[in-house]
Amino acid sequence: MATQKIYIAGHRGLVGCALHRLYAQKADWEIVTRTHAELDLTDVNATRAFFETEKPSHVILAAAKVGGIRANSEYQVEFLLHNLRIQNNVIEFAAACGVQKLLFLGSSCIYPKLAPQPIKEEYLLSSSLEPTNEGYALAKIAGLKLCQYYRRQYGKDFISAMPTNLYGPHDNFDLQSSHVLPALIRKFHEARTNQSPSVNLWGTGAPRREFLHVDDLAEACFALMENYESDQPVNIGVGDDVTIKELAEIVQDVVGFEGELVWDSSMPDGTPRKLLDVSRINALGWKARIPLAEGIKTTYQWFVENQV
Ligand SMILES: NC(=O)c1ccc[n+]([C@@H]2O[C@H](COP(=O)([O-])OP(=O)(O)OC[C@H]3O[C@@H](n4cnc5c(N)ncnc54)[C@H](OP(=O)(O)O)[C@@H]3O)[C@@H](O)[C@H]2O)c1
Q1: For the residues 10-22, what does the mean pLDDT come to?
Q2: 99: nearest Cα among 68, 65, 61, 139
Q3: What ligand 1 atom has the least distance to the C-alpha of 82?
Q4: pTM for this model (two decimals)
């Protein structure tokens, strides 16, 4: 196979790093990257110039403004605007500059709040969204639709995937803006270090969530880039979920915190359950490999070594 050139947008993020690690191990791939400081993808002219100069043959769009419940609900304007701009620029100029294949990353949180479980791809847009992340979800839905329309109208091989909650090395461990799993790692780590008697956690612990290690996600993206051509998005998940309480107990165990867990049920829980139906991607021959406790263990090691 002749060398192909892949642009991994957002290669310093959780997903982008994992994609970079994976593609770097594969023969015949030249990887193109730009940091956010080198190329702001919300900048139309800079993004156009990048595509015209670099002419990648393949693109995975893993650059986005991403955050946890609090950041998503407090900054709806920024989540909507910033993500629309990034994806509009990347998708439009990828199409204009002859990119052969593009993968757009949606998210399981863009499905309706009360979607039947497990969530099938066709439930997208079937009822109201979760209000706390509506801005982010609307942007992602627009990106997914843009890829679909480019395929239908201009024959572009642009595909979309819907990953479940992800975790792994290079995650965001900042308590103000992080997702639940890295937030738990930091909270338990700090509580153990400070010898705190207890840790306070948001909500009741009852919601059920699915967690996929980002190295599994990277394998799934690679498989889709190689073998999937359709205007229908594909869920990427484990096919199994845990309660937040069970998750907290796994993290507590991995970190070795021996104090008490105190649940603040006055704080919002969010969607009661979010489990993806993964039969479409399983039928393509991909399955998640990394067990949750093992993935959390290696992620915690990474956190300790990097103290982000
Ligand atoms: N994390 C999850 O659980 C999850 C679940 C489902 C789907 N996804 C999807 O996966 C994708 C990647 O998420 P992630 O968790 O890897 O996010 P992340 O860790 O925050 O990484 C996003 C990357 O995008 C870069 N970026 C943001 N704005 C940019 C801009 N204007 N120009 C250039 N680069 C920009 C960031 O750079 P800076 O840090 O320098 O701003 C960062 O390197 C997103 O589309 C997200 O929706 C994530």
Answers
A1: 97
A2: 61
A3: 31
A4: 0.96
